[in-house]
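User: Can you write out an input/output pair for a complex, sequences first and structure second?

Assistant: Here is one pair. Inputs:
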Amino acid sequence: MASATDLIANDIQFEWLLRRGDTALVLGHRVSEWCGHSPVLEEDIALANVALDLIGQARMWLSLAGEIEGQGRGENELAYLRDAWDFRNFLLAEQPNGDFGQTLMRQFLIDAYQVPMLEALKGSKDERIAAIAAKAGKEVAYHLDRSADLVIRLGDGTAESHRRMQQALDALWSYTGEMFVSDAVDTAMADAGLAPDPASLKAAWQETVDAVLDQATLTAPEDEFAHTGGLTGRHSEHLGHLLAEMQFLQRAYPGATW
Amino acid sequence: MPVSEDIVWQWLSEIPDPEIPVLSLTDLGVIRDVTWQDDTLVVTVTPTYSGCPATAVINLDIETKLLECGVSKVRLEQQLSPPWTTDWLSEAGREKLRAYGIAPPVDGTRSDGSSAGRLARMTGQGDFQVACPRCGSENTEKISQFGSTPCKAAYRCRSCLEPFDYFKCH
């Protein structure tokens, strides 16, 4: 199997890998913020385990990104020593946790995207990308089971849980469109057979979302407006606050290990 | 003359999993290859879950064990593909899990994220039963999709009323 290096410029691959790694890292960190604060013990444990999976996936993507970049940066340098404008995650991933319902809705909207994305990446011409996708895909399929089940149970639950889930959906909906926007990086990756065109994932995502929201008795907003900018480093104010906490130790005590 | 690879496998089978010590690393199926390259012993290991904290401890335990056994040059290599699956859990390992109070994986039930699976769970049709490792009853229910580690889910037995961990099919 060909190495991606033969097919396409390294800086394009690096950008694309940061999108995968940063989305997993930022979402993983957000979910980890629940540790010790969840409404019930079982959910606390579940959220911590989902966060662990995501941070593990981020390590694989960022390690490969560092290798491709070839500047001596590894997963740790990329995670802890870049500022907000160098992050390439979806804006949806950095949105605050809100209440438990908003956290689950955010998780569901991203899980429903990651499942077809990783499935398609298993066929990447770069065997390293395909290997990470195969590993992460199994974990994310399980995450989707959980987030979809809970969106349905809470959406179709009490009047209060329904109200909160609808509110979460309304608040997050305008951040979902960004996941399907293709730019020059995506086109180059798709042309080289390394990754799917994000727009091609929309139908599968929509099918999952429609089916689950229908069962959950929730209604997606009709407005198609999409916030964008995460993939080019123009983030919402929330990312800076997240990084301030996540990166504090390495910034204050450079090189610290334990 | 270095020791044979069979003996190395035997040594590795004596290393307990750090989180489920009733299982050895070979029961768990995370050791993918053992081979000599000149005077260096190369052990290929695959992680269970991407973020499992036990991975680093497993690597350390392998190095420590092999050094204790007199192998001075050890190199560990990580292999991601094919991804680890509970299909690689040995038969002996499954029995050890059950005896330890953890229900072993029900083969063929791994999640594929499909809506068919969701429908089966929601309606209770086509969903699978996990037998209680204590009393053997199949009258059990899932409490949470995750248990004390990423590889497990939390269940409860409706017959003997005891909670238990289920080692998920992955």
